[in-house]
Write a structure and sequence with these properties.
mainly beta; 8 strands; four-stranded antiparallel β-sheet
Length: 89
C-alpha cells in the first residue's frame, strides 16, 4: 500500500505532498536528481530504475526534493495544516 506524505523544505519553507510506494495497480517513482515523478504499473516486487532526461535515476527510493527550489534538505511537515500520512492503493 502506498502513502501520501506531507513535507516541508528546510531551505525555502515550501510545504508539499508526495505519493510514495506501491499501490495495487501503480507505483510512484521519483528522480534522485531533479525530483520529477513517473507513475508505472505495479508488476512485481523487482526494483525498477529508469534514466531521467536530466541524467538522474528515477526509482522508488529517491529522497524527496522540493518542487519549488529542488533542495533535498527536506523534513516532515508538522505545521497546523499538515495531514501527516494518508494511505492509498
Amino acid at each position: 500500500m502506498g502513502e501520501i506524505r506531507s513535507y516541508r523544505c528546510n531551505a525555502c519553507d515550501h510545504d508539499f505532498s508526495r505519493h510514495e510506494g506501491r499501490g495495487f495497480v501503480v507505483q510512484m517513482l521519483y528522480c534522485d536528481r531533479c525530483g520529477c515523478s513517473r507513475q508505472i504499473p505495479t508488476v512485481d516486487d523487482k526494483p525498477v530504475s529508469i534514466t531521467c532526461e536530466c541524467g538522474g535515476s528515477i526509482h522508488e527510493s529517491a529522497r524527496p526534493r522540493c518542487p519549488a527550489c529542488n533542495s533535498s534538505d527536506i523534513g516532515d511537515d508538522t505545521g497546523p495544516f499538515s495531514f501527516g500520512v494518508i494511505k492509498w492503493d
